[in-house]
Structures are given as C-alpha cells and as structure tokens.
Amino acid sequence: MTGNSEVTSPVVVLVHGAFAESASWNGVLSRLRGRGIDARAVANPLRSLAGDAAYVRDVVASLGRPVLLVGHSYGGMVITEAAAGNDAVVGLVYVSAFVPATGQSALELSNSEPGSTLGDALTSYPLATGGDEFAIRLDAFPAQFAADVPEAEARLMAATQRPVTEAALTAGLVADEPGWARVPSWHVFGSADRNIPPAVLRAGAARAVARGTVELPGASHAVAVSHPDAVAAVVLDAVAGVTGGELDDPDRGEPTP
After folding, report:
1. Could you tell me if residue 146 is inside a domain?
2. 115 is in which domain, residue-wise?
3. What's the average model confidence in pLDDT over 118-141?
4. Residue 246's pLDDT band (boundaries 50, 70, 90)?
5. Cα angle, residue 222 at apex, residues 49 and 69 outer, rounded to 5°
6. Looking at residue 141, which CATH number applies to its domain?
7. What CA–CA distance (Å, rounded) separates 177 from 169?
C-alpha cells in the first residue's frame, strides 16, 4: 500500500455475531490499528435481521468514507443485507460467518449440512416484547463456542455473551441482490467450528466466488479470538484488494486448495 493509504483505505467496520460482543474483536482490532488501518468494532443489536442491518447501514453512512464490512457468524447475515445496494461498502470479509442467498435465514443455513451441536447447548426464555431469546449455557459455552481459547478467557466470554432473538435467526435475507454479489469478499473460518458446520462455510465462500478463502485447521467458532493474527491478515488482504495496494503479513493462514 502506498503512502497515501490514509486517503485511499476504507474504514474497517467489525460486526460481531450472536453470543459474542464487540470486545471479541479486540485482538484483530489492535493488529489492524497497529498497521495503520482505521478500524472499529460496533455493537450488533441482535434483535432482528432487518433492524440489525439498518443499524449497520446507519454506522456506514455516518462515516462518510468507503467501508469494508467484516462480519462474524450471524454478523455475516447482517453485513450481507447492509451491503445490498450500498455504494459506500466496497468489500466484505466473512469470519466464520453465514453467506446467505435471498430468502435464506441463519437457522436454515446452519441446518443445511450436518455437524452443528449448537442446538443442544442453547437455553431460551420469553421476552416481554414477544418471542424468545437464545443464549449458550454458561457450562457449555467454552467447548461449544471457543474450544481453542484458554478456558478462563472462554468463561469470561460466556459471561459477557450477547443473546440473540429467535426472530433474528429465522428471518430470511430480504435483499434481491446480496452484498456479496456486488462487491468482492474474503473468507476465514476454522475446520473445527461447532456452531456453523465447516461445509456450510466452504459452500458460502464458493457461492460468493471468494477472492480469498482461509481455513484454519482445528480452529473453533471463536476464530477471531483464538487466531487474531490470521484473521487480521485476511482483513489486510481485503483492504489491499479493494485499494489496489499490497499488504504483507507473515502470519496469515493457509488458503484452502
């Protein structure tokens, strides 16, 4: 990347998914900022797909600059919707994230291939506003969500997780043209993801005709926490890809064949 990167580089906006929160991006965020990238993590409301995407669109509009959206897990649904028809979004990075087609929901995609054990780890309860909300049981969270994260840290993540509504997980993508169909995308995920079957993640990257796909052997769903160097490297690749520059990072994962 040339010396005028402050002008040409997009703002990187990191969107967490269900059962996580903005601080789950801290490792990635610090590495991006260390490379001079303007990056920030935003709170995903996790109330409804339409509402969550509208919030992210508002964040994008407030920046007044090109944006590279990065989504984790259900955050992939949100960035796909938020990028639809949005000229400010110049690229997408899917981190262990759903890559939906029009009409598809997170729940539908999760069940499209065998392998997810999330259902058995969930607890649910009714909301005063209607519907139900889901959280991962505290005792199940480390093994289910963050098996390759140190246990003490995984238990803290369990205690700070953001629950998600059933409505958010069952709503289908509304956009006629998903965001990944109009801008380039990059994908990174773990081979030992227990929330979203790796086969679903591979299929999503293939569907989007990914510019780059990195599969990290043995990595859990919490790949941004357990492998922040590799995730940051993919984001740096995406920044370079949308600006025409080059960013070298020695600790990127190996692309899938």
Report:
1. yes
2. 5-243
3. 97
4. low
5. 45
6. 3.40.50.1820
7. 20
Instruction: List, for residues 77-114, the tens digit of each pLDDT value.
Output: 999 999 999 999 999 999 999 999 999 999 999 999 99
How distant is the alpha carbon of residue 237 from its chain centre? 16
User: Is 41 within a domain?
Assistant: yes
Mode of pairing for the β-strands spanning 67-72 and 89-95: parallel
Q: What percent of the chain has pLDDT over 90?
A: 91
Q: How far apart are CA 3 and CA 67, in angstroms?
A: 19
Residue showing tokens 């569907």: 207
Structurally, how many domains does the chain consist of?
A: 1
- Is residue 61 in some structural domain? yes
Residue of 22, 135, 10, 8 lying closest to 71 (CA atoms): 22
Residue 248 resides in a domain: no
Calculate ∠ Cα 151-166-79, nearest 5°: 75
pTM for this one? 0.93
CA 132 to chain centre: 23
Residue in the structure block whose two tokens are 């759903």: 98
User: Which residues does 44 contact at the CB level (< 8 Å), separation at least 6?
Assistant: 15, 16, 17, 52, 55, 56, 74, 75, 78, 162
